[in-house]
Amino acid sequence: MNHPRMWMALLCLACALCASGLAADSKSESLHPLNEQPPAKTTGESELRSQLETEYRAQLEKRVAQEKISMEGSLHSLWMSNAAVWTVLFTFVVLQALSARKRSAEIERLRRSRQGDQA
Amino acid sequence: MPDTPTRSTAVWVTVALGALGMVGVHVTLYLSYFYTPTQVTPGTLWVVTPDSGAPISLYESYRIFFIHLPSAYTTAACCGLTALGGVMYLLSRKPKWELLIVSAAETGLAVGAMVLLTGTLWADYAWGSGRLGSGWNWEARLTTMLILWLAFAALLVLRRAIDQPRQRSLATAVYGILLGPLYPLVSKAVDINRTSHPRSFSDLLSAPEIATTQRIASVGVVIALLSLVALRYTWNSVGNNLNTERAA
């Protein structure tokens, strides 16, 4: 991997990797406290109970949905960060191997030219 | 060290293992994040708090095993490769076997560090107080793994300390053979006494999603990490050729 552009590409990938953490658990995904309003007074206790239950269920479902989005968002960020780390590592492995091949060929060429000079 | 030929095969083995490993690791990561369930049943893995012996719910933390276990398998493979390289070098005196010992030891050092780090980070929350390093409790499994890691480092330091090439090769081969039995010792260390470290993963793996992911991780991540052995082999081989050419 002698080519400077290869190093630049790896450096850019590493920078992108560092920046990927910024996407993790963004503020918009964070949970907010419930905005609870006292229920309006009703005459019958059973009606009040039913109304409270409906409100509670609605708020609970909203909160569960928010939590699910937050969880999926953080998992996605983690997956992306990890995938970036391993991609950089194995791109490095493959490029190093190809560079070794190039260097071997260069050594062979030098050896042959030296043997030719001696002959 | 005598001259070694151009390792074209080693190059292509490295490229193939690296590419396959990249795919394997990504599939493993995807499955471990999006396919496997949260493990909430206490006691399905033999992990307990050291004081009370109460079973622990692992929740999301068990997902680290998909990297931790294959890293441990690769460390075991590196141990085996150093022993194999040592025996083959003593029998044939071919420099390629010495290269294999060195490459396996270098990779064993890196991957062994991964095992120690992932294990300790997980244990900090599984049976430690959550503070960094609190999971390290000097139990037999942890201590023998640390000894193995230090043994890989010692092999590489020993080589640097010997100037005479023939002596260096012989010492490397003999040390490589001695490294071989260390991993079985690490493996059996959990049976020595009561331990916080899981003895068996069979209960955890009874969940089909976890078992499938673990099988894929065992192949994909091990291939990925073994590509590091192939890479170091290729690179050391080229380095030797270069030194020979410079000396000529």
Could you please describe the fold and organization of this structure?
Helix content of chain A is 76%, strand content 0%. Chain A has 119 residues and is mainly alpha-helical. In chain A, α1 packs antiparallel against α2. Chain A is rod-shaped. The mean pLDDT of chain A is 79. With 248 residues, chain B is an all-alpha fold. Chain B has seven helices and no strands. At the A-B interface, α2 of A face α1 and α7 of B.
Q: Into which percent range does the helicity of residues of chain B fall? A: 55-70%
Beta strand count of chain A: 0
| Radius of gyration of chain B (Å) | 20 Å
State the order of secondary-structure elements of chain A, H for helix, E for strand.
Answer: HH
Report mean pLDDT of chain B, rounded to a whole number.
87
The largest inter-chain interface, given as chain pair and residues per side, is:
A-B, 24 and 29 residues
Structural class of chain A, please? mainly alpha
Number of helices of chain A: 2
In terms of structural class, how would the helical and strand content of chain B be classed?
mainly alpha
Oligomer state of the chains in this structure: heterodimer
Query: Helix and strand succession of chain B?
Result: HHHHHHH
Q: What is the count of DSSP helices of chain B, taking H or I runs of 4+ residues? A: 7
Strand content of chain B: under 5%
What would you say about this model in short?
The complex is a heterodimer of chains A (119) and B (248). Chain A is an all-alpha fold and 119 residues long. Chain A has helices spanning 4-20, 45-118.
